[in-house]
Amino acid sequence: MSNSADTDLAMDASLNKALDRAQEWYAKNWSSDLVLSDWWQKLGSSGWGFPAWPQEYGGQGLPSAVARQVVSDRMQRGVFGPRTGIATFLAAPTILTHGTHEQKERFLPGIVSGRDVWCQLFSEPGAGSDLSSLQTRAVRDGDEWIITGQKVWTSGAHFAKYGILIARTDSDVPKHKGLTYFLIEMQQPGIEIRPLREMTGESAFNEVFMNEARVHDDNRLGDLGQGWAVAMTTLSHERDSNNPGVGGGGGTLFSNPDVTHTVDHFRRIQNTEVDAFSFATSGGITEVLNDLVKEFKCANDPVIRQRLMKLHSMRETQKWTAQRAKANARAGAAPGPETSTLKLQSSLTGRVVRDLGFDIIGAHGMLLGKDAPAHGLFHKFALFVQATSIAGGSDEVQRNIIGERALGLPKEPDDSRDKPFRELRVGTQKTKS
Ligand SMILES: Cc1cc2nc3c(=O)[nH]c(=O)nc-3n(C[C@H](O)[C@H](O)[C@H](O)COP(=O)(O)OP(=O)(O)OC[C@H]3O[C@@H](n4cnc5c(N)ncnc54)[C@H](O)[C@@H]3O)c2cc1C
Questions:
Q1: Are 94 and 238 in a shared domain?
Q2: Whole-angstrom Cα distance, residue 266 to residue 259?
Q3: Tell me: the pLDDT tens digits for 130-182?
Q4: CA spacing 20 to 30 A to 29: which of 93, 317, 385, 411?
Q5: Is residue 384 a part of any domain in this protein?
């Protein structure tokens, strides 16, 4: 027998064993009558919430291909997933990669059990696409660091316990080299959080002002000055929709569900009462669009039919790209340009759905809230979807990545790359004489 056939057999055996163990555990423990926080706690302690994570940090230590199948089996069985969000899809993989054993033991249990909400303190008013130009400062004071600066677009900061933060610890070296990564407690006197109102009418993200906020040196992730490399780990996970920390949960990305509901009750309300961000990223829009086609009786309209078929072929192409990205992930490669292609495809598909939906509902597009078609769910999606071309790196930035990594084009010219940060005219430094 060839080596690859041996490997396939071993994989099948390991998958069957894992599925049996997981199903046995669900049979004994799962009930939709459980209170949400209790279920997340139980699932977290069992290791079946994030089966790819190491056993000692709340997973089952399964190979990622096996873990994906276990997650998909759980979803098919209707067993509710773990709480997902920035904690699981950005903070945890970064801590798992760069954290010390002590940091993993301290931070991961609260993430696995859904107890702790995290936010991402990266973007600033003058540093989004050009993140390495950020100006928030961290100054050493004994065993602590004093943090001063402003972040923006900080999703979920208003209910976060911790933030993943990049700050400048050295302005005398080039911009990428003087950054350090911290895990900061959000609820402290030096941090002021101001929610921003979006055109959806909701406030999913915030401005965060740090005025001599404090973070202990034990909460530094990675070495001093190595923040850019650590941040790259976070960003590669942010663009990767195959990230095992995403999906399969309760659509809880940026909403703060009432964890005292039963799982059953939360399931019933989650599509109608969640925020626009969670709905737009949950995948539920396909069903909503199909319902609109039926409700507005346009399945025989030749133009709408053409557009529906175009949308279908776009989605099929997207699946193909996702499979390639998954295959690369299985081969152990870091997320590459496929994730950028996937991100571009999904933001484009989102806009096609938006335009098609508005054409289907016509004048009903002027309604808002629960009076609108599909109880306002389509509007939630349509008003939010343009954000997907910006969040996690804009479309133009994704194209640059594809140009450089897939097409082999030369890097964009950047004469600021080798100068000390102090000499650059970026953000608020632009106004200095
Ligand atoms: C819904 C949402 C949630 C977010 N949540 C968070 C969060 O939780 N934490 C966080 O830190 N950030 C968050 N962000 C911020 C996000 O990462 C930034 O908005 C994004 O990186 C773009 O930065 P910017 O808004 O400063 O735009 P800019 O970087 O100022 O870009 C402005 C325009 O210029 C274009 N551009 C910039 N540079 C180039 C280039 N080199 N080549 C070609 N075109 C270029 C951009 O594509 C864009 O069209 C969120 C954003 C959104 C929309």
A1: yes
A2: 9
A3: 999 999 999 999 999 999 999 999 999 998 999 999 999 999 999 999 999 99
A4: 93
A5: yes
Residue 248: pLDDT above 60? Answer: no
Instruction: Give the model's pLDDT for residue 251.
Output: 45
What is the extent of the structural domain holding 226? 85-246
Instruction: Assess whether 76 and 93 both reside in one domain.
Output: no
Q: Which two tokens stand for residue 68?
A: 């994906």
Which residue from 137, 139, 170, 172 is spatially nearest to 151, judged by alpha carbons? 137
H helices present in 260-336, as ranges: 263-273, 276-280, 285-295, 302-330
Q: Which residue has the tokens 């609260």?
A: 110
- Same domain assignment for residues 175 and 59: no
What are the C-alpha distances in Å from 74 to residues 48, 70, 77, 181, 247?
A: 9, 6, 5, 35, 12
On whether both 62 and 100 belong to a single domain, the answer is no
CB 358 within 8 A of CB 382: yes
Q: Which of 238, 273, 338, 404 is catalytic?
A: 238
Clarify whether residues 41 and 183 are in a common domain.
no
Q: Which of 134, 153, 347, 380 to mutate to test the pocket of ligand 1 (most atoms within 8 A of CB)?
A: 153
Residue 370: which H helix or E strand, with range?
none
Q: Are residues 48 and 74 in the same domain?
A: yes
Residue 275 maps to a domain:
no
pLDDT of residue 247: 41
Whether the CB of 236 sits within 6 Å of ligand 1: no
3-class DSSP assignment, residue 185: strand
67, HSE (Cβ side, Cα atoms, 13 Å)? 23
pTM here?
Answer: 0.91
Same domain for 113 and 224: yes
User: How far is 275 from 384, CA to CA, in rounded Å?
Assistant: 10
CATH code assigned at 232: 2.40.110.10
238 counts as catalytic: yes
Q: Is the CB of 118 under 6 A from ligand 1?
A: no
277 CA distance to ligand 1 middle (Å) = 16
In the chain, % of residues over pLDDT 90: 66
Residues 6+ apart with CB under 8 A from 219: 103, 182, 183, 184
- φ, ψ for residue 52 (rounded to 5)? -80, -20
130: CA distance to ligand 1 center in Å? 8
> Has residue 255 been placed in a domain?
no
As a whole number of Å, the CA-based R_g of the chain is 23
